[in-house]
Specification:
mainly alpha
Amino acid sequence: MEQIDSTTIVLVEHIIALVLMIPWAIYRRKQLFNLSLMEWGGVALIGSGASAIAMIFFTASFKYLNPSVTILLQNFQPILVITLAMLILGEKPRRGFFLWAVIAMVSGFFLSVPHFNWAEIKRDLTQNSKGIIYTLTAAGLWGIATVAGKVVLKNIAPLTVTFWRFFFGTLALAIIVAANDQPFPVRLMLQNPLFTTLIYIGIVTTLLAMICYYEGMKRTPAATTTLVELVFPISAVVLNTIFLKAPLLPVQLVCGAILLFSITRASADSTS
């Protein structure tokens, strides 16, 4: 996939997911368009902001920051989501929630920076302001999208939110790709094994993952949802161990266990 721009790949993933949902959309067309003005704004924000723009900013940040710093900055997302959930959604977690939330974020911090190279981190934070802005912008958009998703899910079915996420995400990505004035590599994408890989990603890690995400979000407080997303550093290091032969450090194993435990406890204390 090195020959294809990352934005184009994300666009193709969205197109595949959107096409697969069209039969359901036709069947549920009355329900699909029965949205209020605020709900239209919510799904448009989720699609264009979280699916398109945030992913582009997050990908671009790797050009200026090392991955550890990028993931570290992403851990600020729960702070924003918890604050917005309290102000907008009226979620009032128990006192124990805040303790376990802090432990989860701290363990995620140390999991992302296992070597504790503070000098390098400080230098990166000072010299690479563009990457920092990109990463925090992505974290902010994802955080806002989490709260927006919780708002629209009060009256809209998870599958409806999923469809409009892919629709508005596809629209935003198509505009961005067209603005780059680069030819769309249709022939290259139709070649195996690239075509098979894109189909797999579009179905499993894009469509099915988002369906599960919104089904879970409908039943879970927004603050808990964003803390569960902190499992990302664990999955990243596990995949690195399996596919890139990069073994886990002892500190990562310890921090990963603490992160999972603290998320479980925070989930139990997420509502009063």
